[in-house]
Every structure is written in C-alpha cells, then in structure tokens.
Fold:
Amino acid sequence: MIFRQLFDKISSTYTYLIASAKGREALIIDPVLENIEAYIGLLKELDLKLVKVIDTHIHADHITGASKLNKETNCSTIMGEHTPSEAVQIKVKNDEIIKVDNLKIKAIYTPGHTSDSYSFLIDNYLFSGDTLLINSTGRTDFQNGSAKDSYESIFNKLLKLPEETFLYPAHDYKGEKVSSIGNEKKFNPRLQVKNVDDYIEIMNNLNLPKPKLIDTNIVRNIKLGDI
Structure:
C-alpha cells in the first residue's frame, strides 16, 4: 500500500492519499481546495490514477476539493449516507466496504462532531475525521453535533478496535501526526471519564470560538466545494 499524509497549514487539516501499489489506483480522504494542484502533482509523480475521493463529513473550517478533483480526474465522490449533500455521487452505509483495486475501506458511522460524520478503516489504519483526535475529540456544538453521540461513537465503536490500530485524524493543532487506539485510551484527557454524563459535561463547557467562515464553508461544502 502507498500512503501519504499531507498537511494544510491554514486550516490544520490532514489530507490522506492511499493507493494500491499493484493497480496504481488511488483514494484521497478530506482534500482541501487550495491544495488540488499539489495533489495532482503527487499523483503524477507516483504514477497513480485517482479513482475515489472521500469527505469524512461536511467541514466547517475549509473548503473541500472533492468537486474540483472530480472534474480534474473523473474520480468518484463519496460520503456517508447521512450527509446533507445531494452533490455527492456515492453515499455509503455503516459497515459498507469501499474497494480501490485490492484495498478494502470500511465505512463506520461515527456521529457526534456532526450528524453526518464517518470514519474509515483500511487494514489497521483508522481515518477518524473529526470524531477522535490525537489527545482530544471533535467539538460537538454545531452542525447537529451531539456530545452523547460522540461518546457512543468513540467508546462503543472506535475504542473497540484493536489497540495497535493507527489513528489518523482530519486535524491536529499541535504538530502530532499519528497516534493509536491504545494510546488514546490511556492518555487522551477527554476519554478519562467514568461515564457518558462526565463526557457530556466536558464537551458542553469547552466554549470554543466558531470557525470564522463556518456559514460560507458549510454552504459550499454541501455542494462539494462548488460555488
């Protein structure tokens, strides 16, 4: 498997390129619009054909590059079936398998950060979107977010995965690149709670500022980045 982790400094977004070394077919997860030329350049450099692009959810802090990648490469656009986007070509269900050549990507419905949040598992690589972050968890105070749903998604789905599973989130603000399910169980401060009520108490009192362009970004991202 070919794997690249790419970082957008402005929005602190991680984008992932995963490909089959055998068939040279590639998948991109959570692309950022401003970085499309860099992605296409990397695809050419690695002699890869982009066949699918996934957004883990409707993002609020940057514009997705899904639509532009579709136009540039004719790749298919994918999101979970709970997305409000009518522009996405393929909507996957919980536990559905997405195939890219000999790679199998399992979709996992993990609401909480938003009501349409999905995580994606490839072998022992978990791409958790904004649901589970390194030493943190995704905020739950907009886009139909729910602290209770976040708890259920994390504790009853993601933390049930093998502890050696690598964790690759959609964002990191402190320079961390990768963690594991085992490390998050032991060291993530938001997960050291006794029950769902303790977790809800933490999440309901974060008092974080909303992204500056949230309204514009959501409208555009529902259209997969189109104006």
The domain at 2-218 is CATH 3.60.15.10 (Metallo-beta-lactamase; Chain A). The mean pLDDT is 97.
